[in-house]
Design goal:
Chain lengths: 261, 377
């Protein structure tokens, strides 16, 4: 039963147009070549985990997808819209792409509820009452509705990151980007954030997640992408990548990760 | 990793009952001991300073209250002269207070600038209360400032016309400071944003403006506004002298405030800009809803510092012959009968400045505490 369902779901994914297309993307910081011919297609509903050593360009890659960084060569398409200097297209893309940062980046001068309602009210022009109801709904889903009236500084790191997830979801994005969402957290808080992300993955959201949490990758990722020195080195299902690494670089990386844990 | 459960709470350890700190370290005695008498050297300094303060206080009370003359009959200052400096001649203030407050404004019309001063103070008080921070407040400001203009100039509603040359005293100081900061502050925000703009032309203009204005003293700017600027105007055209000084002050304060605001903009982390961008907020929404509210809160202390500085710097308009509070005080004692009683007049004028500046300072401290509550855990 569940197998057939999964089969139908994956078939549907294959037919749907890709949510994100990166085609030979190159980027330089000054003279440093940080992305080298990065190509990656992400289907609608697909969950992709990007891993790799620090400085490998994984964060830069997903930051290019909503143009927090601009690329210099190659093409990036999000939901069929190409990322260029066109401001209108960029606004359309950012509205559909939610992002969660390593350092949460909640707005400290606004309450939790205001953090969540800000973009729906000012970008989607939603009435305040409706936006608040929506925000409370998502805060309930990340299990912190009781904190709505507090300020970010009064919450723990794990709670703040869950608010950040709720804030992004309030824009009803079609794609969610996670940039090392658990790296700044104390160990006992990592689980609560990962659980929230697993829950989100189960709803069929298209997700790209930069993380070192291999347990999470195994559990939810359809595909794992390994990057090193600005290149995509290996790509495949979690089983392929973790059990059967093809390259020396991935083997080295995995051994370091395992030793670290 | 995610399957790992971590037990962090420490169970079954009996809690120690809380104890109060030693009696010698709390209360008045504790405070005195730690702050004033912590060593024999500190004790000696405390006693010496206390002696000097008390001596000076006694002297001041004798001069200012016990031996003082509070009023004299029609300009007969002999009583004051007889004191030979052992007592204050507050009579000069009693006699000249109208001149100090209102300058050469027609005597029988003094209620008009007096009402203006009350309107200004009322405006400050209302603007200071956060529950009035709504869009309507801007309308209140426009209405009150217009009312002040009508009251001061007159010529309508049965009020007699009073030319600007006759305005003077405290009301001039309040006009220059209020209009000056009300216009300089928005200007400063735009310039500060412009200086961080990615558009090279805008950035260059803003940098040029700030550096040029900051590079010259306010006095020279006032001179230029009053002496040189009319030379460039066509024959017969004349812009009010007060307005010219006002513009000079706005431009000057704007440059200083812009740098203060820019400091706040730079103190914000890049993540705040990125989070706002990622949510799809446009530049102006991002700036107005996320960046400025935080940046301005961070710079309340230097902002108010600059405000206070400019409130007092308005007194520099005396060099182009505008009668502000300080000039009025100075002029009040030019009359031969009252010469030599400068100390009393300057103390009074100083006290008026102090009341306004101290109120600003206290208010800013409260605002800062209120705004930054969310920063504390």
């Amino acid at each position: 039963m569940s197998e057939t369902l999964e089969h139908i779901a994956s078939a549907a994914r294959a037919d749907a147009p890709p949510a994100i297309v990166l085609d030979k993307v190159n980027k330089w910081f000054g003279t440093m070549h940080v992305l080298r011919d990065v190509s990656l297609n992400v289907a609608t509903g697909e969950r992709v985990v990007i891993c790799g050593p620090s400085g490998s360009g994984k964060s830069t890659t997903i930051r290019c997808i909503n143009r927090l960084e601009s690329h210099q060569e190659g093409r990036i398409l999000v939901n069929g819209i190409e990322l260029t200097d066109d401001v209108k297209a960029l606004d359309d893309i950012r509205r559909e792409v939610g992002m969660v940062f390593q350092s949460f980046n909640l707005f400290p001068h606004l309450t939790i509820l205001e953090n969540c309602t800000l973009a729906p009210i000012w970008v989607r022009r939603m009435p305040k009452k409706e936006a608040e109801a929506l925000a409370m709904d998502y805060l309930t889903r990340v299990r912190i509705p009781e904190q709505a009236k507090k300020y970010p500084g009064q919450l723990s790191g794990g709670q703040q990151q869950r608010v950040a997830i709720a804030r992004a979801l309030c824009m009803k994005p079609k794609i969610m980007l996670f940039d090392e969402p658990t790296s700044a957290l104390d160990p006992e808080m990592i689980k609560e954030v990962l659980d929230t992300m697993v829950g989100l993955a189960e709803t069929g959201m298209t997700m790209i997640c930069v993380t070192h949490e291999m347990g999470f990758a195994r559990k939810v990722a359809d595909r794992v992408v390994f990057m090193d020195r600005g290149e995509v080195v290996e790509m495949g299902t979690p089983a392929q990548v973790f059990e059967n690494p093809q390259t020396e670089r991935l083997k080295t990386f995995l051994s370091q990760i395992l030793r670290g844990h | 990793m995610s399957d790992l459960t971590l037990e962090t709470s420490v169970a079954k350890v009996p809690e120690a009952a809380p104890r109060s700190p030693p009696a010698s370290q709390i209360g008045l005695v504790g405070w005195l001991r730690t702050n004033l008498f912590s060593s024999w050297l500190n004790s000696a300094v405390t006693l010496l300073v206390a002696y000097l303060v008390i001596r000076w206080l006694i002297g001041f009370v004798e001069w200012g209250i016990v031996n003082a003359v509070w009023s004299v009959p029609n300009n007969q200052t002999q009583a004051c002269r007889d004191l030979k400096g052992i007592g204050a001649c507050w009579a000069v203030v009693t006699e000249k207070h109208r001149f100090i407050l209102f300058g050469t404004y027609p005597y029988e019309e003094h209620w008009r600038p007096a009402l203006c001063i009350l309107l200004f103070v009322g405006l400050y008080v209302v603007s200071a209360m956060r529950r009035f921070w709504r869009k309507e407040l801007a309308l209140v400001w426009i209405a009150v400032l217009a009312a002040i203009g009508v009251l001061m100039w007159g010529g309508v509603l049965g009020l007699s016309y009073v030319p600007q040359e006759r305005w003077g005293g405290l009301v001039i100081t309040l006009i220059l400071a209020t209009f000056g900061l009300a216009f300089a502050f928005p200007l400063a925000i735009l310039v500060a944003l412009g200086r961080r703009s990615r558009l090279p032309a805008i950035k260059a203009i803003c940098v040029l403006y700030v550096e040029l204005i900051r590079g010259v003293p306010l006095i020279s700017l006032l001179f230029m506004a009053s002496v040189m600027f009319p030379l460039f105007l066509p024959e017969g055209m004349n812009i009010d002298k007060l307005l010219r000084a006002q513009i000079a002050i706005i431009l000057f304060a704007g440059a200083y405030l812009a740098e203060v605001v820019r400091g706040g903009l730079q103190a914000l982390s890049k993540g705040q800009y990125e989070a706002a961008d990622a949510l799809g907020l446009s530049y102006w929404k991002k700036t107005g809803l996320i960046i400025l509210p935080q940046a301005l809160r961070l710079v309340i202390p230097p902002l108010v510092n600059t405000f206070i500085g400019f409130f007092k710097d308005t007194s520099l308009v005396l060099i182009i012959g505008i009668f502000d509070l300080l000039t009025a005080g100075k002029t009040a004692i030019i009359e031969p009968a009252w010469q030599g009683f400068g100390v009393e007049v300057y103390l009074t004028v100083g006290a008026i400045y102090f009341v306004f500046c101290f109120a600003m300072s206290k208010y800013s401290q409260r605002l800062e505490a209120e705004f930054n509550r969310h920063r504390r855990r």
